[in-house]
Design a protein that fits this description.
- With about 350 residues, the protein is mainly beta.
- It is about 10% helix and about 35% strand.
- The strands form four sheets. Strands 1, 2, 3, 10, 11, 12, 13 and 14 form an eight-stranded antiparallel beta sheet that branches. Strands 4-9 form a two-stranded antiparallel ribbon. Strands 5-8 form a two-stranded antiparallel sheet.
- Strand 13 and strand 14 (about 340-345) form a beta hairpin.
């Protein structure tokens, strides 16, 4: 009989492998979804509006700074000639007020699943005490607005079970030799002869010892790693996620809005509290509208299945300068944007095709 028939293929853990733990009735192997947080015991103070900024202006970019940024941009591209940057004549510059509103919502969410691992002598504590509920288990969050995941074995949910994959034997058939312990000789392809002579590699047997299982025909079970038993328990997954959303207003230049994600601007306003208050009464109504919409959406999206720990909002004024210049009698345009003086020049007038060896 093929020894593989004695070892059925690995299957998912049977449902009766796990116990019934009060407070965890919906927990399954593979995850039972996110658990809504409990209502706060104490009433939460309403968010308070923050002050409006005093200065909404950014100094205009000088021609010297714009020219140096353009030279640096050209030098960073191996296929760009430096001539337009060095010899081009700036004819005019236009500044654009571009405001970016950013809302960050830092949340904690919790989910549970039945899990198992090879039993390595851990005690079974199932029902020795009442298991704490998912949101009662202590978990230390990382620094605010930092993503992090932690997994915790829920106390008083551990049991010891025979491995469901190998039925407690600790072994499985070797995949390489299919449980035989030997493989066809690679010299004679299992024929026992080589060039009409007896194969010296396998002594004419046509078989080679399987090195994967040391000719045993079996290997340690992958599920229990040869331990024969599993420790089953409820695993609590705690996830801290910083949800970030931007809204750019008054973007009237032809610069691609995606380019702005990599740069910073002049910070006009920032405040952080448990729940932020929409920025009402700002001089720019589009910022107030974006703030009110995003604050409402974030609280609706994230408060159902997670706990909001902190929110932070800020307004930045991102400098964008459109630089018009002439080179060899033709007019061209490039943009300098952000505090970093990044440059965008989609139609650079002097490029070449080069091959990097």
């Amino acid at each position: 009989m093929n020894s593989a028939a004695l070892y059925p293929p690995a299957t998912a853990p049977p449902a009766n492998m796990f116990g019934n733990v009060p407070g965890y009735e919906g927990t399954m192997a593979g995850g039972g979804g996110y658990l809504p947080p409990p209502m706060p015991v104490e009433p939460v103070a309403p968010p308070q509006p923050g002050p409006a900024p005093d200065d909404w202006s950014i100094p205009s970019l000088s021609e010297d700074v714009a020219r140096e940024a353009f030279k640096s941009f050209a030098s960073s591209h191996c296929c760009y000639s430096n001539s337009p940057a060095n010899d081009g004549v700036i004819t005019s510059m236009e500044s654009y007020n571009t405001y970016r509103y950013r809302l960050e919502t830092f949340t904690e969410s919790r989910s549970t699943e039945w899990a198992h691992k090879p039993h390595e002598g851990e005690p079974a504590d199932f029902y020795t005490q009442t298991a704490p509920r998912p949101w009662e288990i202590q978990a230390t969050p990382p620094s605010l607005f930092s993503d992090h995941t932690e997994e915790i074995r829920v106390p008083y949910t551990s049991s010891i079970k025979d491995c469901h994959t190998c039925h407690g034997t600790g072994t499985k058939p070797c995949d390489e030799c299919h449980g035989d312990g030997y493989k066809p000789c690679w010299v004679c392809n299992g024929s026992g002869t080589n060039n009409n002579d007896s194969c010296s590699r396998c002594n004419a047997t046509g078989k080679d010892r399987c090195t994967e299982c040391n000719s045993q025909g079996t290997k340690d079970c992958d599920t229990c790693q040869g331990k024969r038993q599993l420790l089953t328990y409820i695993n609590l997954k705690v996830e801290w996620v910083n949800h970030v959303e931007d809204h750019v207003v008054e973007h009237t230049s032809s610069l691609n809005i995606d380019d702005l994600r990599s740069v910073s601007g002049k910070e006009l306003f920032k405040n952080s509290q448990y729940l932020v208050y929409p920025l009402l009464g700002f001089p720019n109504p589009a910022i107030s509208e974006a703030s009110e919409r995003l604050v409402r959406e974030h609280q609706s999206k994230y408060a159902q299945n997670s706990r909001i720990l902190q929110q932070r909002q800020r307004v930045e004024l991102i400098p964008i300068s459109q630089v018009n210049y002439k080179w060899k009698g033709d007019s061209h345009v490039y943009f300098v944007y952000g505090n970093e003086h990044q440059v965008s020049a989609d139609n650079y007038p002097a490029t070449c095709c080069c091959v990097i060896l």
